[in-house]
Design goal:
By secondary structure, this protein is of the alpha/beta class. The protein is built from two helices and nine strands, in the order H-E-E-E-E-E-E-E-E-E-H.
Length: 120
């Protein structure tokens, strides 16, 4: 299964921005946000000026793979209803994200935390 996810990442990267819709979401430490994600395609989560370090969620709700080289997260929900995940970044921020699942194209979700942008 992980091979399929990795293959999907490579294919998605080859097509660039034509494949994805983009959401830029402002976040705060311990913030809670809602985002829309595809139920049928791989979705990307990126922390701007930071890197995703850990992800936690209900067992079996999502498939995920972390790109440790660039710090991005690729997810695909396995349940048809909304589900929560928690993401912790290398700079120590934790965000609660409600994934609202829809039958749509893949999404790119950029988490923008002004505090992380100035924290070194």
């Amino acid at each position: 299964m992980k091979l399929l996810i990795k293959l999907a990442i490579v294919i998605a990267l080859c097509f660039g921005s034509e494949v994805y819709a983009k959401q830029i979401v402002k976040v705060k430490e311990d913030g809670e946000i809602k985002v829309w994600v595809s139920s049928v395609e791989l979705n990307r989560i990126k922390a701007i000026d930071d890197r995703v370090k850990y992800i936690r969620g209900n067992e079996g709700d999502i498939e995920w793979v972390a790109d440790k080289e660039i710090g991005d997260l690729y997810i695909k929900p396995k349940v048809p209803e909304a589900t929560n995940i928690f993401i912790t970044t290398e700079k120590g921020y934790t965000y609660k994200i409600l994934l609202q699942v829809h039958d749509m194209q893949a999404e790119q979700i950029f988490l923008k935390n002004e505090d992380a942008m100035i924290k070194e």
